Amino acid sequence: MQRSNYTLLSCIILLAVLLGVVGGGVAGGMMGYYAAQNVMPTARPIAATTIATNPTAPSAAPVTNITLKEDSAVIDAVRKVKPAVVTVVNRMASRRGVFGGSVSPTSSGSGIIIDGKGYVVTNNHVVDSAQSLLVILSDGTKLDAKLIGTDSISDLAVLKVDGTMPAVAPLGDSSALQPGQVAIAIGSPLGDFRGTVTMGVISALNRQIGSMQGLIQTDAAINNGNSGGPLINSLGQVIGINTLVVRSTNDGNVAEGLGFAIPSNLVREITSQLIAKGKVERAYLGITYAPVDPLSTSGLNLNATYGVVVSRVEPGTPAAKAGVQEGDVILSFDGQKLDQDALTALLLKRKAGDTVTLTILRDNKQIDLKVTLGARPQTQ
Q1: Fold (topology level) of 174-277
Q2: What is the DSSP string of 311-326?
Q3: Does the domain formed by 71-96+103-160 have CATH 2.40.10.10?
Q4: Which residues of 84-115 are buried (b: 16+ CB within 10 A; e: fewer)?
Q5: pTM of the complete model
Q6: Taking the domains of the chain in order of start, what are their residue ranges?
Q7: Is the terminal CB of the chain with fewer CB neighbours within 10 Å at N or C?
Q8: For the segment 209-260, what is each residue's pLDDT rounded down to a tens digit?
């Protein structure tokens, strides 16, 4: 009897434990489900205008456009000046051909419109020996050109065409140039590639090549046919007129990237005289000289780092009368140092009869000489 009661009691306790476990699990599951339903976020549709997609592709990444400011400046400068750049065709006098008959040779260069009245500046050597001249505008329009005047010393010439000008290029201030700044050449290399754009930097200033002085040196590519075309800055201002390149030396050394341009301030002075008078009038000293550099002063005991060395004084000239001697170094012209300004450019701003002061270095001592300028002979 006691054993039966013990067994029954054990079964009841076991059953109660099982019911508790099952009931707790069910209750816990229900509570968990309830909690999950209350914290689950509500899905909301995405507005159709939030992301633009390609209907033929599953997704498309957004596109970012990057603008390079300096490139944009160069592009804008070219766009501004290029319509004012022209091709100049020189039709020379007919001559007898090798196999009989007559031949009318032509050559070509570049030019730039500097005035809305149709004035075009180019190089003197581009129009040399011309029988007639033709200007081809950037859009291909051909116009007969009249020669207004030339200046062989600066290698500049001014032409005139009639009609509506597509653009006018402004002349900048070449005295503000710095080595290393952007330089852009536009022209017609080889005569066939009109509107060609090349870019480099200002390599140096106040260079002398032969008798030409105060030139801008650049590594922007310049080829035959670029002569007379503009060298511009990134503001779209003409800072020079391309005139020559140096490709080799007398010793046979080959060079690349040695182009030279006539500075815009000299271009402005020369062209204004050619337009007004058809010629250029210069004051005259009567000396031959070269800029101070290690080569020109290597055989002289000089401490000068700038100026010009006098190599010859013509007898009876203003310089000779004032006492200028061979070997003198002219440091300044009427107070203007000859470190950046070319002597030819300073003389251009003076007239015959003006009296100026030359600061001379002689035997490593500075002296001042008063010189009354003369009129430059037309043959020089």
Answers
A1: Thrombin, subunit H (2.40.10)
A2: EEE-TTSHHHHHT--T
A3: yes
A4: bbbbbbbeeeeeeeeeeeeeeeebbbbbbbbe
A5: 0.73
A6: 71-96+103-160, 174-277, 283-375
A7: N
A8: 888 888 999 999 998 889 999 999 999 999 999 999 998 777 777 778 899 9
Kindly name the residue from 107, 108, 125, 188 that is annotated as catalytic: 125
Say whether 125 is catalytic. yes
- Catalytic annotation, pick one of 107, 110, 151, 155: 155
Residue 43 pLDDT > 50, yes or no?
no
Using alpha carbons, list the distances in angstroms from residue 125 to 31, 71, 265, 316: 101, 34, 20, 32
Domains 174-277 and 283-375 share a fold: no
Task: Please give the Cα distance from 369 to 359 (Å, whole number).
Answer: 7
Out of 227, 234, 296, 332, pick the active-site residue.
227
Q: Domain 283-375 classified CATH 2.130.10.10?
A: no
121: exposed, middle or buried (C-beta count within 10 Å: 0-12, 13-18, 19+)?
A: buried
Task: Provide the token pair at 7.
Answer: 């067994």
CA angle 221, 225, 230 (to 5 degrees): 65
- 358 burial via Cβ count (<10 Å: 0-12, 13-18, 19+): buried
Tell me, yes or no, if 155 is annotated catalytic.
yes
At residue 1, does pLDDT exceed 50?
A: no
